[in-house]
Task: structure prediction
Amino acid sequence: MDKIKVIEVKENILNNNDKEAERLRNQLHEKKTFLMNLMSSPGSGKTTTLMQSICRLKEKIKIGVMEADIDSSVDAETIAGAGVKSIQLHTGGMCHLDAAMTEQGLTELGTDELDLVVLENVGNLICPAEFDTGAVKNVMILSVPEGHDKPLKYPLMFSKVDALLINKIDVMPYFDFDMDKLREYVGRLNKNVKIFPVSAKTGEGFDDWCSWLLNEVQVWNK
Result:
């Protein structure tokens, strides 16, 4: 019997996606549009964090948001209520977005007048980390209730991000969360990541986070 031919599909898919992502990034640079890929697990406070950020930035730059989810349009409706352009992307059961899907969303959103587009990726810490969306920066939110040991369990995600928001610091006294340990674990994986402890509920820490993001957008869009 002939040997069965084995094809490494995943590597080919990722290589093709990386090429598409780089092409998309170059196009966005030409248009002076900054794309941020926002990732986290469900319940970390992505949408609330985004709302806090929008309130601080929408008078300084023009913002659009793409809300990715398996189903529903709840998040997009919430963001639209903040007075910025927003669309919902349904992934059809897929647990991530790739460059082609992101580009399709950008086309539907329209980027001609936007300085910053936020892609709120599907909520999980595995699949989104594997696919380059064409974003200029990757940002992750980790909430205090999730624990400081998450970098040990999901190393790829933490190694890919440019900024890490530690959300829900207002409830830190009620959880066994060690910020020093978190910084140590993340530092082993990613020495260049910027860490911002924040509370989307109270607004604490958002001035530093938004100042960093605004500067990144302005530098990219020069």
About this structure: The chain is about 40% helix and 20% strand. The radius of gyration is 18 Å.
